Amino acid sequence: MRKVIASEFVALDGVIENPSWTFRFTGKEQQKFKFDELSASDALLLGRVTYEGFATAWPRMTEQAGELSASDALLLGRYADMMNGYPKYVASTTLQVPLEWNNSTLIEGDVAEEVSRLKQQPGKDILVFGSGKLVNTLMRDELIDEYRLMIFPIIVGSGQRLFADGIDEMVLRLVDTETFGSGVVVLTYRPTAEQDAGQGS
Questions:
Q1: Within the chain, which residues score under 70 in pLDDT?
Q2: Which positions ≥6 away from 166 have C-beta within 8 Å?
Q3: For residues 90 and 99, is the Cβ–Cβ distance under 8 A?
Q4: CA distance 97 to 108
Q5: Cβ(107)–Cβ(151) under 8 Å?
Q6: pTM, whole model, 2 decimals?
Q7: What is the Cα Rg of the chain in Å?
Q8: Residue 191 · residue 199 · CB < 8 Å
Q9: What are the CA-CA distances from residue 145 to residues 4, 6, 60, 97, 168 (Å)?
């Protein structure tokens, strides 16, 4: 069965909103991590706000390649090809079809039901980027198999936080850590065995 992976940029105070504050910490290690992560996936699952931002940026992302070194431009081009080419599933009650970004499908029915169906299909990982409200919805329905939290050494002070008030207590198991020279740390968590068993019951 395919896994749903929530991959998030998170400030030390838990903020995920408008993560322009990540740019000062970007480095080769982080770029490789994100490239490998996307390569291990073959679909994106997004909320409306994240989708609209991506749909504006990614189709024109390679236009910035002239400002980069040849190797960085190649990496960006390959990453953009995956972002633009992968199927995108968008959870929104306000967007209307047809969606502007190629290979995008609007989830018009029950989100949990549709995501459960996608997980049953053959394929690689399904990635959720940003999309805080969607992540909280999927978490309540126990549909997230892995949380990859890229923690940045910055306190933003205000903005939407990853885990909303009202989320039930959930114990997660730390399965991997990775530290970059920039001070960024990636913490990878999965639901505990007890919750895994609950999902299968």
A1: 65, 193-201
A2: none
A3: yes
A4: 10
A5: no
A6: 0.91
A7: 17
A8: yes
A9: 5, 8, 32, 29, 17
In the chain, what are the domains? 4-200 (3.40.430.10)
Amino acid at 60: R
Give dist(CA 26, CA 183) in Å, integer. 10
H or E element in which residue 75 lies: helix 70-85
Per-residue model confidence (pLDDT) at position 200: 46
Span 33-58, pLDDT tens digits: 999 999 999 999 999 999 999 999 99
Is the separation of the CB atoms in 146 and 25 below 8 Å? no
The burial class, CB within 10 Å (0-12 / 13-18 / 19+), for 117 is: exposed
The pLDDT assigned to 71 comes to: 84
